Amino acid sequence: MNICLIVSDTVRKDALGCYGKRWIQTPSLDKLAEESFVFEKAYAGSFPTMPMRAELMTGTYCFQSFGWAPLPPGTLTLQSLLQKSGYVTVMITDHFQMFAPGYNYHQGFSGVEWIRGQMGDMWVGTTEPLEVKLPCDPKKLRTDQDVDSEHLLRWLKNVLHWRNETDWICPRTFQAAIQWLERNYTQKFFLYLDCFDTHEPWTPPPWYVELYDPGYEGEVVIYPRYDYSEYLSQAELHHLRSIYGGNITLMDRWLGKLLEKIRQLGLWDKTLIIFISDHGFLFGEHNLIGKHAVLSKKGWPFYEEVSHIPLLIKLPQQKEGRRTKILVQPVDIMPTILELVGIKVPETIHGFSFLSGLKEGGTSPRKLAVTSPPLPTDPEYCVYSTITDGEWTLIYGGNKGKPELYHLPSDPGQSKNLYQTNFEVAKRLHREYLDFLENLGTEERRLKLQKKLPN
């Protein structure tokens, strides 16, 4: 069995047509869904970007411990276990944060290919000054938060001379994977493909933007400030959704080329294919823009638009798609893959194999899903966690936040806070959350800030 694990950053669940809303064109993923398990209750775990990759590779949560940090040398990883079992393991990615000094996310791979130019990557070098300008009022950009203006200007220099679609990073990333497959398709492989290019700043080819907002002439907010949404006009907000949609459709088109190559090489029925994202993004829902409050002691709740992620899994020989409501998280991917290929699942990990849950009438071994950034040690910081059993969701901010409770089947948009009227449900979820943290071995200085539940 070959394995192809595809991670695409910042893809909302409802960005995929197979999840029903169809506000973005994703024909390749929709076609894949026709032969895959479509997970309707997949939730992000450790938040955001790098912690999620740590979960995929190690099968362990890190929001309760090290958070955004390097993988220590010698860490037990999915790719290292597969490599020891005879797999050729390769990582192909444009995710420049993977290659920060000492981060070690490459360990266990037989080969690594880094597609250059993403975000603040110092890729374009020239003795001539490149004249670039911001596409909107800088006050609308994230440059006043944790990303400085030089960082964004460096990105604009990287993209300045792009003209053909194949100049863009996303096509180059998928094309590198296609070329790697053509060279290595006769071997037993684990291909880890990580497309960071669906993350902002969003600057897709203009013909992709025209699909969603033809003729727009206003300011283009390519890297929006994470804030309450009033700073954008309705036209700017619609265009923001449009450039995001353009980036998703661009990714979908080139992912389709990769899937077609897998078919062409005769690997379709021999390959496990997984598509997943790390989190979503808010485009004005709940009056918010972004995914979290950056560098602020006042946290944001993690609503469904951010915490509820897409997950498609096509098993070898699978011919028909099926929807499943079992509760899963990224930490569960590693043990599920290991069980599928017959490798013993380490007892030290936090994830559960959900393979048995995919059978008709099967259930998930997971009863609770938690989405959270690193838990604070400073009592002045408010960090929100989302705690869900798939029916009820408690949004909990530790000793500083104001809790919210939602019943997802009757209120998927989370517009009616039922915390006061269903306090017993909130108490149950909070108690299960504390048990969950204790079972993870969460240190007391973090745990004590999670014990208060206002009534």
Keywords:
11 helices, alpha/beta, four-stranded antiparallel β-sheet, 455 residues, globular, Arylsulfatase, C-terminal domain
How does the helix and strand content classify structurally? Answer: alpha/beta
Taken from the alpha-carbon principal axes, the silhouette is: globular
CATH class of the largest domain: Alpha Beta
N-to-C SSE string, H for helix and E for strand = EHEHHEEHHEHEHEEEHEEHEEEEHH
Portion in strands:
5-15%
**Count of β-strands:** 15
Low-confidence stretches: none
How many helical stretches? Answer: 11
Mean pLDDT over all positions: 93
Helix content range? 25-40%
CATH topology of the largest domain: Alkaline Phosphatase, subunit A
Radius of gyration: 21 Å
- Quickly give the CATH architecture of the largest domain: 3-Layer(aba) Sandwich
CATH-assigned homologous superfamily of the largest domain? Alkaline Phosphatase, subunit A
Describe what this molecule looks like in 3D:
By secondary structure, the chain is of the alpha/beta class. It has two domains: 2-358, 3-Layer(aba) Sandwich (Alkaline Phosphatase, subunit A); 375-450, Arylsulfatase, C-terminal domain (2-Layer Sandwich). The protein has eleven helices and 15 strands. It has helices spanning 27-33, 49-58, 78-84, 149-159, 169-184, 206-209, 234-264, 304-307, 333-341, 423-439, 444-447, and strands at residues 2-8, 37-39, 88-93, 111-114, 189-195, 227-228, 271-276, 282-283, 288-290, 311-314, 322-324, 369-371, 385-388, 392-396, 404-407. The strands form three sheets. It has an eight-stranded mixed beta sheet with strand order 4-3-5-1-7-10-2-11, with helices on both faces. A four-stranded antiparallel beta sheet has the order 12-13-14-15, covered by helices on one side. A three-stranded antiparallel beta sheet has the order 6-9-8. Strand 13 and strand 14 form a beta hairpin. It is globular. The mean pLDDT is 93.
